[in-house]
Amino acid sequence: MGFEFATARRVLFGPRVSLRAGGLAREFGRRALVVTGGDTARAQFLLGLLSENEVSSVGYPVAGEPSIDTVRQGAALARREDCRLIVSLGGGSALDAGKAIAAMLANPGDVLDYLEVIGGGKTLAGPSAPFIAMPTTAGTGSEVTRNSVLASPEHRQKVSLRSPFMLAGVALVDPELTWSAPPAITASTGLDALTQLIEPYVCRQPNPMTDALCVEGMRRAARSLRVAFEEGRNAGAREDMALASLFGGMALANAGLGAVHGFAGAIGGMFHAPHGAICAALLPHVMEANLRALRQREPRHDALRRYEEAARLLTGKAAASADEGVAWVRHLARGLSIPPLGVFGMIRRDVPEVIKKGATAGSMKANPIALTAEEQREILERAL
Ligand SMILES: [Zn+2]
User: Fold this and answer.
1) What is the pLDDT of residues 249-270, one digit of tens each?
2) Euclidean distance between the first and final Cα of the chain, in Å?
3) Which residues surround ligand 1, an ion (CB under 5 A)?
4) What separation in Å is there between the alpha carbon of 133 and the centre of ligand 1?
5) Would you give the distance in Å from CA 40 to the centre of its chain?
């Protein structure tokens, strides 16, 4: 057994830790590009903190999930405005956009040169510009991952810009920033976080460090996701979910994911559906199919024991079976009003294209067992 573990250079976690953003930014430069979601009013406090610390800023709002053009335009703006650092405040979209802009600000050429699958697949030559990530959802864990997921509308596909150089300089995780997330966002992003704890735990190459993170993260998400959904200002539940998201990000960046994310990349490129909502709709069906396939073809596989362990953490019952874990996830998704994929326009006819595109995804290859085309079709049809 051997492994490597890498994460953001600094991780600061806690209520009101976001108030340190100005001082931290000042360590990196005097002019920042501030990447936010569509609601720029949300960033006013951050602009104030920056200016108090003599850091001037240029805003770059990103509405919706980032595309290749989002990154091109953001990097061009940062160059034109002579920005030396990037600060992202928002959900996974703002974080992924900022992370990719920081990479392109410090590397030559076009973003397409570096993209896997649809682009040149070149490796980044050097470190990104300094990047501070401040998540407002819990979430994608993007503050500690080394990739940005970017849409290419032209290819109807989502692909990653990926490099160890892309790890944030500072991950500034303030659970209070998630208090205002509406219930539907709390639900879908929270189930993404849960997926990002379950998939690395049962994936092909887990390691003891990611295991520890997944176990603790699952325990917290299990007790707090429903509470955060029902009571947005419950400090304890929001704190648990912010940690679950952070741990999920660390785990996926250092172990791997699975079929939920393999499909989610393909579906997200084809339909306007938020990443969290796609994962939420797929999770119970993938768990069920994986369990069946493992029992049929690889009954001694360690992932079976891991699914059982996950079920015990999720249900809180010491004797829970893996199937009870699946039932618990299904029940949770129903309780959080997670819509099926059909709501986003996906129909049966789209299934073969999703399977074809999903097959090229790294996440699909990390699934504990290779699923047959028939098993994949069944998962997708059940999630519609
Ligand atoms: Zn995800």
Assistant:
1) 999 999 999 999 999 999 999 9
2) 39
3) 192
4) 17
5) 22
Over residues 272-282, mean pLDDT: 93
Ligand 1 mean position, distance from CA 358 (Å):
14
What spacing in Å lies between the alpha carbon of 19 and ligand 1's midpoint? 27
- The secondary structure element, H or E, covering residue 160 is strand 157-162
Residue 352 CA to residue 116 CA, distance in Å, equals 22
Is-contact 118 142, C-beta < 8 A? no
pLDDT bin (cut points 50, 70, 90) of residue 204 is very high
How far is residue 356 from each of residues 116, 151, 262, 299, measured CA to CA in Å?
Answer: 16, 17, 11, 27
pLDDT confidence of residue 18: 98
44 burial class (0-12, 13-18, 19+ CB within 10 angstroms)?
Answer: exposed
State the distance from the centre of ligand 1 to the C-alpha of 261, rounded, in angstroms: 6
Question: Quick one: average pLDDT of 350-371?
Answer: 95
Q: With contact defined as beta carbons under 8 Å apart, do 160 and 275 qualify?
A: no
Instruction: Inform me whether the pLDDT recorded for 188 exceeds 90.
Output: yes
CA 53 / ligand 1 centre spacing (Å) = 34
User: What CA–CA distance (Å, rounded) separates 295 from 279?
Assistant: 24
Helices (H) and strands (E) in the chain, counts: 14, 8
Q: What spacing in Å lies between the alpha carbon of 50 and ligand 1's midpoint?
A: 30
Q: How far is the CA of 311 from the centre of ligand 1 (A)?
A: 20
Residues near 61 by beta carbon (within 8 Å), at least 6 away in sequence: 35, 36, 37, 38, 39, 40
Interval between CA 218 and ligand 1 midpoint (Å): 15
pLDDT tens-digit map of 108-131: 999 999 998 888 999 999 999 999
β-sheet bridge partners, residue 170? 10, 132
